[in-house]
Design brief:
The protein has 108 residues and is mainly α. It is 44% helix and 0% strand. Bound molecules: iron/sulfur cluster.
Amino acid sequence: MADDGRLPDPINDHSQWWDLAACRGMLTTLFFHPERQRGPARRRREAEAKAVCHRCPVITQCRRYALVVQEPYGIWGGLSAEERKDQLRASREAPSVPRPGARQFAGP
Ligand code: SF4
């Protein structure tokens, strides 16, 4: 279950971008795999869902939402659940880069 409590207010208010979603009114079974779907059928369904996402005007907002709430299932923002987990893992493991203008700790 995704946790909406992680969302800062502008993302939490999906009404700002959800109205423009290319998937509105489409069957959710395209974006969420049916029970026990594996192999070529699953890959084909995911490719079709991602094709919808890649022509969606709010793909950036949707992907950000799914990453922030750590949405555990389905295709969101053109990414599968596994791809989102990989992105989150990579962002946790990446060395932090100081923000421009941030003061550096110079030591004692
Ligand atoms: S990016 Fe994909 S899942 Fe997200 S709103 Fe658009 S079509 Fe729907």
